[in-house]
Amino acid sequence: MVESDRWRRLRWRLRGAWQWPTFALLTVLDALLVAWLPFQGEGGDAVGAVLIVGFFNLLAVAVVAPFLGMALRRRRRDLPLVIARDYAGTALLVTIFLALLVGGLLHRGPRVDQQNARAAGETAVRDWLAREEPAFAPITLVDTRELEPDRYRACAYIAAERLPICLFVNTDQSPPGLIRDTERLPNRS
To answer: Pick from 177, 153, 157: which is nearest to 167 by CA?
Structure first.
């Protein structure tokens, strides 16, 4: 009699022990997804992504999954509460992953457009400097900062000068509109 209970328990454990392996795997995949395919902004670093998705996954497993497990237990009386909670937690983790994936894919187009606009603005700044300020021709760096959508402030540096030449760039027109900034303060300040 004891043997049959052990086998039954083992069967339930194998059927219901997916939450924590799924948590570990999807926390890593979610972090990679948030870092490489962000659902908003430009993305972040891997450490920040691990912290944020780890928090949300843990919140889902620790706070929401018990309530969903109780609801599942009401519908399926044959499931032990622990197994129902495990199923609910696993489903929540997969749902979070899918939501991050869909959000990242939906945001990918606008993010690529923004990166292309920034690159076009930097190219326009380099061309303008080569034409209007030949002394600045060996440009070592163009530091671009987004002020608002389609509006940037680009500062060009050369090794000989301490202060950059900065321009305001409007990328919602073709070619990008450029206005020289009279202040030579770098973007970092």
So the answer is: 153
Dig out the tokens for 180 from the structure: 């020289």
Among the listed residues 173, 182, 127, 111, the one whose alpha carbon sits nearest the alpha carbon of residue 153? 182
pLDDT in tens, 114-134: 788 888 888 888 888 778 777
Q: Which two tokens stand for residue 178?
A: 């450029």
Q: How far apart are CA 170 and CA 147, in angstroms?
A: 10
φ/ψ of 161, rounded to 5, equals -100, 145
Long-range contacts of 135-144 (CB under 8 A, 24+ apart): 136/161, 136/165, 143/186, 143/187, 143/188, 144/118, 144/169, 144/187
Which pLDDT band, with edges at 50, 70 and 90, does 104 fall under? Answer: confident
Degrees, nearest 5: CA angle 17-21-23: 110
Identify the DSSP state of 62.
Answer: I
